[in-house]
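Exercise 7. Predict the joint structure of the components listed below.
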Amino acid sequence: MGKVILEVNHLSTKYITRFGEGVYAVNDVSFKVEEGRSLGIAGESGCGKSTLALSLMGYYFAPLHYIKGDIIIDGSNISNRHPDDVRKNVLGNEIAYIPQAAMNALNPTQRIIRFIEDVIRAHNPKATKGDIYDLARERFEILNLPADTLQKHAVELSGGMKQRTVIAVSTILSPKILIADEPSSALDVTSQKMVIKMIHDLMELGYIKSMIFITHELPLLYNVTDDIMVMYAGQIVERGSADQMIFDPLHPYSKGLMGSIIVPEDGTRDVKLTAIPGTPPNLKKPPDGCRFAPRCKYVKPQCKTASVPFEELCDGRGSRCIIPETELREAYRNEQ
Amino acid sequence: MSNEKKELCLSGTGVTKVFGFGERKTVAVDHVDFSFYSGELISIVGESGSGKTTLVKMLLGLISVTEGDIFFMGQKRDIRSHRKKKEYWKGIQAIFQDPFSSYNIFKKIDAVLLDCIHMRGGRGLSKEKKIEMMTEACRFVNLKYEEMTNKYPFELSGGQMQRLMIARIFLLKPKILLADEPTSMIDACSRATILDMLMELRKETGMMIIFITHDIGLAYYVSDSVYIMERGKIVEFGSANEVILNPKAEYTKRLLTDVPKIHEPWEFSKRKRPMTQEERFSSPQPINIEV
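Solution:
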C-alpha cells in the first residue's frame, strides 16, 4: 500500500440556482488515491462527475457551494481554506485540472510561453524569464512536444497539439495530483492516443504523482486507469480495480453501464447492447432510499425506503446496494 | 437481410468535391466510387478531416458535386429544381451529429412532426388521424406525445432531441437514412437506446442506413459493410467482419490500434492481461468471503 496522496472524506457540494434551489450534485463522496495510481470516474451525463472534479480543487465559486467534507492532499486539508489561499498555494502545484473544453482554454492572442510564465509567476513572482524558458523547453522536449510550440499562438496548433499543450502547461509545476476531465472527448482516436500517452509519460517520469481521469468512455478508462469508480446521481455506487469493474461489475447500475461497451473486437457483434431504461433522478429532490431503485431491474420493496450505505467488500472493492453480493451474482448468472 | 437479389439503391462513380480553386484548392472527396444496396447498413469510418461529412452533404444534395455522378435507384440523380430536390428528400433523410442545432428553434415540436406527415402526402388527413400518427411516432421512440405537444425543441434534453429526430424518420419512412455521427454527442448509455431504436426502425421499414462515424467499434457493431475513408479517398471496404478483423490497408490497421479496446490493451497501458474468448463470455466465479 503506497502513500495516500489524496483523501476525500464525505465531501458534499451543491449548486444554488437562480431561484435559490439547491442541486445536490456531489453527495457524501469518500475515496483515496495512492501515490503512483490513477483513478477513473465513470457515469452518465449529469451524474456529477465534472462537479466532483471541480469540488476536489477546493476552489468554489458561485453557483457551486461547499457543504461539508474534507479534501486532504498529502496530509494538508484544503477544503476549508480561503479561496485566495487555495488559488495561490494549492492550484497548480498541489492539484492541477484539465477542463473538458481545453481546446478553448488558450487565449488566441498570446503565445504559449505566456501561459507558462503566468502559471509560474503566480506561484513564484521572482522567477526570471530565463529560468522559465529553460524549464518550459526542457519539459516540452521530454514530453515530445516540439520546442518551437512555445513561440506559437494557439490558432497555429491542431486540436491534439492544443490539448497536449494545455496538459503540459497545467502540469508545469509538477502537481501531486492531476484531474483530467474528459481530456480527449473532442479528439479523434489517433490524437486521443497521443494525449493519453503523454499523460502516461507524465506519470512514469514522476511529474505527477497520481491522477483522476473522468470520462464516460469505458474502454478508454480501462486502458488508462488502475481503479474505476462509478458515479450515479451524485453518489459513488461502486469502486474496484479496472479489471474487476469492466469484467465483473457488481452494482446493477455498473452492470448496465458495462453492457453498453462497444469495441472493435471479435465477438462484440454477438453480444446485445443493454440500455438502462428511464432517466436519472432530479438532483434537486433526490429520491429516498437507493437513487437507482426506480430504474433497477432487481429492485426490492425495501430499496425505495431504506437509505443504502456504501459498503466495503473484499479486494478493495465497494458497492452501494442492499442486495447481497451472492444474490446479485446469482441473478446475473441466470440472465446469461 | 436477404442475400438473393440485391437492389442497387444509391451509387456513385468518381464523386469528387473540391473546395476553393487554383493554388488554394482542397480536395475534400477524391474520386470516390461506391454502391450501396437497399436494406444494407453501411458505415463510413474516418478520422476528422477525412471527408466523411462532405460526402454526406453531397449525397443529400446540400452541396454540389464537383465531378462524378450519383445514381439514385438506378437513375442519375436529378435535383436541379427545388421541386425535384424535395421529391428526392422524400427518399433520403438524415440525422445529424448535433441535435441542438438540427431544429428550427421557432417551431414547436408539433410543427416539426406535422411537416413530416405533410411531406408524405398526409395534408388532407383529419386532425385526429394526424395526432394519432404523431402519438405513434413518439411512442416508438419512448417519448410521450402529451409531454411533447406545445413545447419547443430546446426544452428537451440532447437524448430526447435525438430521439425526436428518429420519430421524424419514423413518420417519413425514407428509403435511405444518412446518420452523421448520431451518437457522438450523447453518452454511452443513451447511445445504446438510440442504436436500438434505429435498428428497430430498420427492421420495420427495411430502409438502408448509412452510418457516418469515427468510432470504428460502433461501425463494427452495427454495420453489414464498412467503408474506410482517408483524406477523401476510400482506402478499404468490405463486410464488417472482413475489414475490422482482417484489415488490409495500413490506415485501417492504425485506426484499429488507436482505438481503446478491452481485450488487447494499448502497449503502454498497465493492463497486460489479454483475455481469451472463453474467459470473456464465461460468468465470473463468485468470490468466497471467509469470515
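Discussion. The longest helix of chain B spans residues 188-205.
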